[in-house]
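TA notes, week 10

Several of you asked for a full example with nothing omitted. So below is the full record: structure tokens for the whole chain, then the designed sequence directly under it. When grading your own attempts, check the secondary structure regions first.
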């Protein structure tokens, strides 16, 4: 099987109106141009305030189109809103918000076959949302995995399956609800899923569970408030480089020297969200 070098990048938080983190996106683009991977996966929170600023989604698509290699993206809570009762700023996920995203990106779950691997992206915002698309995605995933004929799978979603304990039933804004988590883990074990990559928590962490490699990809945009007291020392900005070979995935964090280590802890404590930052227009 061909060895693959991929990049997972997450929580890039782009905005034409609030371009606070554009500098790190430009630095990331330069890194990709200097050493192009086979594929880039963007695991959500593409923009600062997709629910509140429709142009944020359009701008994120424009910026992702600047990537010089094939790529695919999945949405996060800053793109679609979140499930009740976790929605910040009252931004619940709705069919209308999802349709706005689809109008620019065409899909919120997908399959890509690259070098003998099957790369699958899921819309984790649909889990426990109650939208009709939640069931549609579930049926698609079960069918797609069953048709894989044993090929190794790398699965990507925005929210981690769990943060503290895979058996934790607490419904919170950090991870996947227990019923969907249990269902996903069962599917992963049955269909040769070798890797699960997530974002959302703005930390870098690697671990193995039930023979599957798990990765939390750091953000490129900003360090958060640190309320989540897990892997606190891993609140770094960067991206993940993945090497897929022999049905095994190895990964490492990359921290470009040109990155600005934005820390938005005080702004988040004061404003509640980076979506409330004052305008700082993109200058091109």
């Amino acid at each position: 099987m061909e060895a693959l070098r991929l990049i997972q990048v997450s929580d890039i938080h782009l905005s034409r109106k609030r371009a606070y983190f554009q500098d790190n996106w430009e630095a990331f683009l330069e890194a990709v141009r200097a050493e192009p991977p086979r594929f880039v996966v963007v695991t959500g929170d593409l923009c600062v305030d997709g629910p509140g600023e429709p142009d944020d989604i359009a701008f994120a698509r424009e910026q992702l189109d600047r990537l010089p290699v094939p790529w695919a993206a999945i949405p996060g809570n800053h793109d679609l809103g979140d499930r009740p009762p976790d929605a910040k700023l009252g931004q619940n996920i709705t069919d209308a918000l999802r349709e706005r995203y689809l109008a620019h990106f065409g899909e919120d779950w997908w399959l890509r076959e690259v070098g003998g691997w099957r790369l699958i992206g899921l819309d984790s915002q649909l889990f426990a949302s109650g939208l009709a698309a939640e069931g549609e995605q579930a049926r698609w995933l079960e069918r797609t995995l069953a048709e894989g004929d044993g090929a190794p799978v790398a699965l990507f979603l925005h929210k981690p399956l769990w943060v503290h304990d895979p058996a934790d039933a607490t419904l919170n804004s950090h991870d996947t609800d227990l019923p969907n988590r249990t269902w996903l883990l069962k599917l992963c074990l049955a269909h040769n899923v070798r890797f699960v990559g997530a974002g959302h928590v703005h930390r870098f962490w690697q671990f193995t569970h039930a023979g599957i490699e798990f990765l939390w990809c750091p953000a490129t945009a900003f360090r958060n408030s640190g309320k989540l007291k897990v892997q606190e020392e891993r609140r770094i900005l960067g991206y993940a480089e993945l090497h897929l070979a022999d049905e095994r995935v190895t990964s490492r964090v990359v921290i470009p020297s040109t990155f600005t280590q934005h820390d938005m802890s005080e702004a988040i404590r004061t404003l509640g969200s980076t979506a409330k930052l004052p305008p700082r227009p993109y200058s091109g």
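The helical segments are 22-34, 54-64, 77-80, 95-105, 132-146, 178-190, 265-271. Use that as a sanity check on your answer.
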